[in-house]
Amino acid sequence: MQSWVLLLLLIGLMAVAYQLGRRRSVRLVGGYGKVRELHSLPSYYGFYTALWCGLPALLVYGLWVALQTNFVTQLLIQDLPEHIRALPTAQLDLILNDVKNLASGNIVSREVDAYMQAAADHLISLEQTSQSAMGVVVLSLAIVGMLFARQTIAKQMRARNRVEQIINVLLIISSTIAIFTTIGIVLSVLFESVRFFRLIPFSDFMFGLQWSPQTAIRADQVGSSGAFGAIPLFTGTLLISGIALVVAVPIGLMSAIYLSEYAGPKIRASAKPVLEILAGIPTVVYGFFAALTVAPFLRDSGSLIGLDVSSESALAAGLVMGIMIIPFVSSLSDDVINAVPQTMRDGSYALGATKSETVRRVIIPAALPGIVGSVLLAASRAIGETMIVVMAAGLTANLTANPLDSVTTVTVQIVTLLVGDQEFDSAKTLAAFALGLMLFITTLVLNIVALQVVRKYREQYE
Questions:
Q1: Mind listing the pLDDT tens digit for each residue in 53-107?
Q2: 324 with 239, same domain?
Q3: Buried residues in 289-303 as b, exposed as e (16+ CB within 10 A)
Q4: CB-hemisphere CA count at 13 Å for 157?
Q5: Domain's final residue, options 118, 138, 157
Q6: In contact, 81 and 41? CB cutoff 8 Å
Q7: Do 362 and 451 fall within a single domain?
Q8: In a domain, 422, yes or no
Q9: Which among 3, 246, 285, 337 could bridge 260 via Cys, Cβ 3.0 to 4.6 Å?
């Protein structure tokens, strides 16, 4: 049984369980006219039955899916010939990978012989048996849970309390998973970064002025010892992000002020969705626009006035990236400006202030925490952008403040270092994790600054 079919059947059983629990609670008191005799509303009894039907079954389904691959693999290994099982682990893993590829219809790396075809057929049989068994067990457990919950329903059963307790536990589990996922991501990057800094001194990485991570992976190869100075990458990231913010912040903020304070309802209803469309355009489309339109225009315009503009420049990438992040500033700023109480505007007008004075001296200060949050969100989006930089600014790690030169950013280099087959014991590959750690610290600092600004002005205007 396919997983999606099983999940659809499980959802259907939960819907049936909801109706059975709800109807049983109504039947216990003799009809809808006497539901006041129940401790909780009939819907809570339905939710109680549906949760008993779905949650244990979903738990078994998740565990089964998590353990199925290893269990099936162990059964497959036990049925392989003795001379195959006696091979070293690395060779056995290659054979198992070929068997799995053959079973799924993919290309294998060796000639298919009799034992490999038999192993692939056996693997298919094991997987089908496992799927069928999983379907039977999960659906049976769902039906048993539904019948059990239905039988335990009574007039004075605290169904609402039980349902709310279950939902509360689910919310706690979800938030715990999110927290531990974040911790796991940070620790994985941190541990690999520590390995990198054992090979490359921290001072060379943080203060080095040359970035050339090409190294010899094996001792018999001829390669550079590598240069891992990250200053050119940080400079390029700040340069492109700065240009993008110079474009996005004034335009986005002025657009938000106009839409919230000056535009009529019809203009606002049509202009705001048009602005937000910019956020839905794929970044690769922006990259094409930057590489095929903006960059040639800047190069040709620069040549007319005697400037040497690179075909891939920080200016081209920054301008297009600024257009991309305008909605982050305008939409969020518009929302926070509209959230400023009308009484503050009325008080300003009552004191004789004009509309522009009210906007400058009352509305903007009151909405400043949200505006700062929108700007920092846009900055984080600009710092993390990759595709536009690859297509419009290039891959060259130049240490320059000239926006007309080609530069690269931290995110582009992370992608470049991790593309293809890599040896994760080399400084070249581990450098990507060190760059990721620095990027994480940068965004964390931005968030801390935003929280401080929000806290300061929220206390002032609440």
A1: 999 999 999 999 888 888 888 888 887 777 777 778 777 788 788 788 877 777 7
A2: yes
A3: bbbeebbeebbeebe
A4: 23
A5: 157
A6: no
A7: yes
A8: yes
A9: 337
Q: Say which residues have a Cβ less than 8 Å from residue 35's Cβ, sequence separation at least 6.
A: 25, 26, 29, 41, 42
CB-based contacts of 118: which residues, under 8 Å, 6+ apart? none
**Is residue 296 located within the same domain as residue 423?**
yes
37 found inside a domain:
yes
Q: Does residue 409 form part of some domain?
A: yes
In a domain, 23, yes or no: yes
Number of domains composing the chain:
2
Query: Do 145 and 255 lie in a common domain?
Result: no
Contact between residue 308 and residue 402 where contact means Cβ atoms under 8 Å apart: no
CB atoms inside a 10 Å sphere around CB 310: 22
**Strand-pair partners of 428:** none
**How many other C-beta atoms lie within 10 A of the C-beta of residue 227?**
17
Dihedral of the CA atoms 124, 128, 133, 134 (nearest 10)?
100
How many CB atoms within 10 Å of residue 52?
A: 24
Range of the domain at 85: 3-157
Question: Nearest-CA neighbor of 381 among 232, 245, 235, 178?
Answer: 245
Q: Which of 16, 15, 14, 40 is nearest to 28 (CA)?
A: 40
Tens-place pLDDT, residues 122-179:
888 888 888 899 999 999 999 999 999 989 888 888 889 999 999 999 999 999 998 9
Q: In this structure, are residues 133 and 98 in contact, taking their beta carbons and an 8 Å threshold?
A: no
Show which of 122, 157, 192 is a domain's final residue: 157
Same domain membership, residue 153 and residue 231 = no
Quickly tell me which residue has 């060779």 as its tokens: 91
